[in-house]
Amino acid sequence: MGTHNLTVVSEFRLMGFSEDPDQQLGLFGLFLSMYLVTVLENLLIILAVSSDSQLHTPTYFFLSNLILADIYLTSSTVPKMIADILSHRRVISYVGCLTQMSFFILFVSMDNMLLTVMAYDRFVAICHPLHYAVIMNPRLCVLLLLLSVCASLFGSQVHNLIALQLTCFRGVEIANFFCDPSQLLNLSCSDTLIRTIVTYIVTTMFGFIPVSGIVFSYYKTVSSLLKIPKSGGRYKAFSTCSSHLSLVCLFYGTGLITYLGSGRSYSPSKDMVVSLMYSVVTPMLNPFIYSLRNKDISRTLKRLHSWRF
Hints:
The protein has 309 residues and is mainly alpha-helical. Helix content is 77%, strand content 4%. The protein has a three-stranded mixed sheet with strand order 3-2-5. A two-stranded antiparallel ribbon has the order 1-4.
């Protein structure tokens, strides 16, 4: 495959899931349904949190922002994919690719940072319950949110700066249904030293550090739980962080599968399925997991349902 100068390459071609005309209607219905369910479920959780004064706590403040990030994450990829299925034209401009990649990295990083902040919130709630209201005050909550946004914007712009330095490409076909950052960088025929160094820095910032923070928070949390004498009280305390643990396992589980799978063998179809799990299925399942394992959310949702009928 020949090398294309940046001045010539004005658009990229997205592989998509299938080019079979007989499958397009089914794919359109599937992805449109998944997108609508994801948006409606997440908006319902936000409505439940905003309508119940008992849920106006730091835990649900961070949860609401996590859910907003999930909505934006899904919206950065799925509408374009649905439009491509309808138009039978799987192309995206160079500027559009950078824009989509920027938003994708931004909201994935937001998920990452907010899950870490929520782990700290659970640590304070269980290990320092008497000082929880003082420590997790509104000012600190807003500060943690702003730090998460700023760190995510930094990571997104770093990737964009790397992409803007690319001067040539080995091809124009991206083996995914959206502008996957790793796919775009792999198409580059430029010097890889700088982007490799920056990639390691960003991976450390949004991978190693957040995961270490979550692991340390839950190490201290579990240690405190084990000191509770009564098993009933221990179970009640653990139930307050079980929903967050489920979200962490789902988010990092799909991410781990992505990187381990790509390291063993390369398969475009497999990578697209894993990317779909990571960017679409996980945001769709998050509200279901949280409402299923959280009694406060379940109670508020039932109350909203009773008002409707």
